[in-house]
Every structure is written in structure tokens, then in C-alpha cells.
């Protein structure tokens, strides 16, 4: 009897474990079903096509232009100073500030009286020594005749010949002194060494001035013609040099105002420096301008556009179609199945509106120019309709119409009342119960 009881007692815990296992499995299965029902992601609908604007790649000409910053540099800027050989008080400064002057025009006058006196003294000494020379020559002629007659000693004639040579040297020294005095007298008139525009006056009449002064009288600047100096990066130098050395080719250079809003002048490139700046990796170029209208002012900063070359029959796309990212430079190419795909391209020069595609596209290919920020590779697209051309409405003359009747601003009066303004009978108001 006891064995039967023990057997039943041992089977009871096993039954409870099986029951808990079954219940747990059922609960887990139910949880999985509920999770799949409520937590499953809803099926995504197919994305709507993106509306974009497109354009076709075309063939055209593209100028290769280098945009640089330049400085207007005059062909000559001279500080007018007196010569080192002269000094004195200024008696006259006969020029007006800012006027145009010619080469050799007098700008200042140093008191010439000391130099005139020195010239007169040199001339007098020259005349005295020339007289002594003539006298010595005449004596030499007489002595040579007497020697032939054995009337005097030969030594006396030879001594006279050497005396003539000495007098000739003295006369040459005197002549040099005269020339020096004349030169110093001319230096007392301070003239402009170049033609151009004179600046503000740096000294006034009555001041003592010398060649050791660093101030000078004025500064003369040549304005017509003038030049513009600018730099080009070493990566662009090769194509500039090749075109510059081509026989018969002149590279046009256009100068614009510092803000780029106004065209100032057009000239040509005429000089390339013989060295490159190692610190900046640039080389200096100079262009010449006639500047007849004086639009270019000395030391003015200008924007320079150098036309290096013109590419003919190049593949052009609107610049808005060109993008840059992880793939490099690329465009969204429109495919026949109305999708847009990322297409890598190699870029050429650009004028801001259009960009040259050196490789990667052909004329006639369609690219996206607006709406690229919403696209991805392979996205469906829908081309936006082209805007209808707007035409100015034609206004036909309005037909003549009778003037509208004047409406009285006075309240309506009863049928039997007369209008106060024109005497006509006002119509009776409609009845409310009609």
C-alpha cells in the first residue's frame, strides 16, 4: 500500500512541470503572433516620381578666361629733383598742380645768377688763354723761319713749339670749364624728364633746394598709355605662354572696376616676367592699355580678365546641372525609363552660365538642372512642363459707352415725393411681401 502511495506522490511533480512547460509554450506562441500582427512594418508604397527640370547638352564655343586681380602701374613715375651739381633758392615754380606737362617743360627755376657768373668767368679765361696760344703760335712760325736762316739757335725754336702745345692744353681745359658752367646753368632750370601729369607741388618759391634733398619738386606720372600688372598661377602659366608665343596672336586683356560692375578698358598682354615667385607659385604679367579716356587711374586695383583661348564645338551644360560629392564631379543623367542616374564627368572651363564637359557626356544627353537635391541614383523622375511663353496682352480701344446714371445719395422718398436734386420722381421701393 505504501509503495502505491509513494509512486503517485512521485508522479505528481512531473505532471506539474509538464503543465507549466505547455502553458509557457502557449504564451510564447501567442506573444509571437501578437508581435507579428502589431509590430510588423507596414508595406511602403512606391515613391512618387520627383518633378525636375531638365536640359540637353549642346555644342558651342566657350572662351577660356582667367580672372585675376591687378594693379594699374604707370609706364613712368618720376620724382623731379635738381641735379647734384646745383643748389640754391627757388625763384619760380611755373606749373599748376594736376596739369599735363610735356617732356622738357620747366617745373622750377633755381636762382641762375651764380651759375651765369661762373660761366662768364670761364669764358673770359678761355679767351685769355686762346690769345696766349695765338701769340705762341706766331712766335713759333717766326722762330722756324729764323732757324732756316741760321739766325737763332734751333733749341729756341723747339722750346717755343713745346710752349704752343702747353697753351693748346690750357685752352682745352678752359673750354671744358666753359662747358661745365653752361651745363650747371642749364641745371638751374629743373625740367620734367617725361611727359605726363604732374602731382601736387612739394616745394614753394623761396625755399633752398639742393641735389641732396630727397623731397624733390613734384612727381610726374605718365597716364597715357598705362599698364596693368597682375599674377597668374603656375598651373595656368603653360597655356598662357603657349598662346603668347604663337606668331600673330595677341591675348586680349579686359580691366573691370574693383567690384566687377563696370568695364574700364581693353588692352593686350605684352610682357611675362622671367621668374616665378616661389612663395606664392605665381608669375607676374603686364598688359598695356591706351587709356585715352583715362579710365585707369595709377595704383588702382582692378579685376582683370585674360582671354587665353576659345574652345570650339565643346559640349556645354548649364552650370546648375554640375554637382560635386563623393563620386567627384557628376550630373544626374536622364534615362529612357524616366529615371535619373549619377553620371561622373570631367569638367572644363566655365563662364558661370554654362560649363564645358570635357568627357562623360555627349551632345543631346539630357541632364537634371533643378530638383537635384531630392534625387538619388536610379530615382524615378517626372519632367516639369516648360513654362508657357508670356506674351504682352494687346489692349484694344474700349468702345464708347454712355455715362452711368448718377445715383442719388439721399434716402428714397415715398412715391408721391419729388427728388430734391433734379425734380424727378423717385421709384417706389419694392414691397417686402412680394
Describe this structure in words.
With 434 residues, this protein is an alpha+beta fold. Among the domains are: 81-218, OB fold (Dihydrolipoamide Acetyltransferase, E2P) (Beta Barrel), CATH 2.40.50.100; 220-310, Efflux pump adaptor protein, beta barrel domain (Elongation Factor Tu (Ef-tu), domain 3, Beta Barrel), CATH 2.40.30.170; 313-383, conserved putative lor/sdh protein from methanococcus maripaludis s2 fold (Beta Barrel). It is built from 4 helices and 22 strands. The protein has helices at residues 2-38, 113-148, 154-187, 234-244, and strands at 50-56, 58-74, 77-80, 87-92, 100-101, 106-110, 189-191, 196-198, 208-210, 218-221, 226-233, 252-256, 263-277, 282-289, 301-318, 323-325, 328-334, 339-344, 346-350, 354-359, 366-370, 379-383. A 6-stranded mixed beta sheet has the order 16-17-18-22-1-21, with no helix packed on it. A 6-stranded antiparallel barrel has the order 2-11-14-13-12-15. Strands 3-10-8-5 form a 4-stranded antiparallel beta sheet, with no helix packed on it. A hairpin with a 2-residue loop joins β16 and β17. It is rod-shaped.
Percent of residues in helices: 25-40%
**CATH-defined architecture of one domain:** Beta Barrel
Question: What is the alpha-carbon Rg in Å?
Answer: 52 Å
Strand tally: 22
Mean pLDDT: 83
Low-confidence stretches: 1-5, 394-434
Order of helices and strands: HEEEEEEHHEEEEEHEEEEEEEEEEE
Distance between the termini: 114 Å
**Structural category:** alpha+beta
Specify the CATH homologous superfamily of one domain: RNA polymerase II/Efflux pump adaptor protein, barrel-sandwich hybrid domain
